Amino acid sequence: METVMENVAVGISGFEWVVGVLNNCFIVVINVHDWKNGTRSSPCDKILILIAFNNLFLQCHFNISAVLFTDFTEIIFLQNVFATLLFFLVFQLFLSFWLTAWLCVYYCLRIVSFKTYIFIYLKLIIPTLIIKLILMSAVGCFILALFGIWNIHLEPFIQTENFTNGTTPKLYVAFSSYFRLLAILLGSCLPLLVAVCSIVLTLTSILRHVHHMKQKGSSFSDTQRDAHIKAARIMSLLTIAFIVFHSAEIFILSSKRNIRDFWNTFSVFIILIYPTAQSTILILGNPALRTTYLRILRCS
Predict the structure, then answer these.
(1) pLDDT tens, 77-91?
(2) Cys-Cys with 55: which of 47, 236, 250, 275 at CB 3.0–4.6 Å?
(3) How far apart are CA 55 and CA 66, in angstroms?
(4) Which contacts qualify for 241-245: CB closer than 8 Å, 24 or more apart?
(5) Does this model's pTM top 0.85?
(6) H-only helix segments in 154-299
């Protein structure tokens, strides 16, 4: 039964890996093509390209690590191999969270219509602001990844079975309490909070603006309203995917079970499909990308 489940999991993981790679390559190619044709890239386009590139590498690392954990556990015990995989996985994982958060911030600042000085000022500096925020978060994720190298290790999962018969012991990933706290707070909870606050501000601004227009008897442009609602929908879907992924990550961080335990395996599966789910949301939520994407699907 365990072999059947593993085969099914490998098949599904292979399929979502192909879809994820194609989706993220599509985002990069379309944006680079527009840029080469003279279309000026907005901060949103730049964030999308960064997310797509990060997702490509993240997805490759996810699947490589999953294969090594499942079928080549003796290689994982090599210190250099484990440290290298760990560094890139932690860095790209948390960078993905922060890029999603800054995308939500960008949408928020473009949509909100609050007349306070701080929002007006942020709207004016948004192109340079977003770049600085991305650089700061990338440096922070890099430092967190370095810290993780000395605070995460593999340990054999020993129950009543005797593993002295030459078989490879089952493993679980052990985290130091300091790293677990930093990873949950700075790598997951903080970017999630930023994304949720951006969504709340965006929806509040849209509702207030619609209510204000109705009171004045003015009509709120259907095109403008639909564009704002679609942007809010993208932010909401990205955050929902973020929360599901975050829950799976928290379970893994807090678990001391065998990595082949059902719930650990399910959590790993959720983590593996995150880059694919995120790229699909970004494509379907962007009018230009969605139109080209659907046209390609029809032709194929």
Answers:
(1) 676 777 888 888 889
(2) 275
(3) 16
(4) 241/274, 241/277, 241/278, 241/281, 242/97, 242/100, 242/191, 242/192, 242/195, 243/192, 244/270, 245/270, 245/271, 245/274
(5) no
(6) 177-182, 190-216, 222-254, 262-285, 287-299
